[in-house]
């Protein structure tokens, strides 16, 4: 686990380390990522980084959690913007495109979130975020008079999971969010929700 900085000077240093870590990930990928390489790039003693991140996984977990928080905040803001969508399908499509736009403007998020979890910690953080985004989707559809029942399976979370899988495939195959896979993410979410909730598709 990462050690949280307490003093402002330490917080600034940790932010510098995380920013450099993102740059290194974008240049070299997960397989070449290491704290010694990061320390050399920053011209820091390795101990400076190990003080807060005892393992590479701890650092990557911190990056993933920060990106997940930014993604969730972005989609929550976008939900308000898309309130005027013409119907529930348009609403889902707009939200999926907003998620793809986030990944396009946060390339490090693609690496730490879409290439698979680096540890149990990041896996659980991702699934917790997907569950909360499912709750967001449930609330959005409720404004259209569509009730997603609670219980098992969690239909709302699964819809988000399926959409995320399409975006992950886009990154795997093309290294970016393509329009085709973004639309496929919207399509699979709509089809799943329509089948489970008995909604008509236009």
Automatic annotation (TrEMBL):
<keyword id="KW-0805">Transcription regulation</keyword>
<dbReference type="InterPro" id="IPR009057">
    <property type="entry name" value="Homeodomain-like_sf"/>
</dbReference>
<feature type="domain" description="HTH tetR-type">
    <location>
        <begin position="11"/>
        <end position="71"/>
    </location>
</feature>
<dbReference type="InterPro" id="IPR050109">
    <property type="entry name" value="HTH-type_TetR-like_transc_reg"/>
</dbReference>
<keyword id="KW-0804">Transcription</keyword>
<dbReference type="Pfam" id="PF00440">
    <property type="entry name" value="TetR_N"/>
</dbReference>
<protein>
    <submittedName>
        <fullName>Transcriptional regulator, TetR family</fullName>
    </submittedName>
</protein>
<feature type="DNA-binding region" description="H-T-H motif">
    <location>
        <begin position="34"/>
        <end position="53"/>
    </location>
</feature>
<keyword id="KW-0238">DNA-binding</keyword>
<dbReference type="GO" id="GO:0000976">
    <property type="term" value="F:transcription cis-regulatory region binding"/>
</dbReference>
<dbReference type="GO" id="GO:0003700">
    <property type="term" value="F:DNA-binding transcription factor activity"/>
</dbReference>
<dbReference type="InterPro" id="IPR001647">
    <property type="entry name" value="HTH_TetR"/>
</dbReference>
């Amino acid at each position: 686990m990462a050690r949280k900085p307490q003093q402002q000077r330490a917080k600034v240093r940790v932010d510098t380390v995380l920013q450099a870590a993102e740059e290194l990930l974008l240049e070299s990928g997960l397989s070449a990522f290491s704290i010694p390489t990061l320390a050399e790039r920053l011209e820091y003693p390795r101990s400076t980084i190990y003080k807060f991140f005892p393992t590479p996984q701890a650092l990557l977990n911190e990056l993933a959690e920060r990106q997940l928080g930014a993604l969730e905040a972005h989609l929550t803001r976008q939900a308000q913007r898309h309130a005027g969508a013409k119907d529930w399908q348009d609403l889902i499509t707009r939200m999926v495109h907003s998620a793809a736009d986030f990944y396009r403007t946060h390339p490090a998020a693609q690496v730490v979130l879409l290439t698979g979890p680096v540890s149990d910690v990041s896996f659980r953080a991702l699934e917790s975020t997907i569950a909360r985004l499912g709750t967001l989707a449930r609330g959005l559809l409720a404004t259209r008079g569509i009730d997603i029942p609670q219980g098992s399976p969690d239909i709302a979370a699964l819809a988000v999971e399926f959409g995320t899988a399409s975006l992950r495939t886009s990154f795997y195959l093309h290294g970016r969010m393509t329009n085709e896979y973004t639309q496929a993410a919207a399509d699979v979410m709509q089809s799943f929700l329509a089948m489970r909730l008995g909604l008509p598709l236009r």
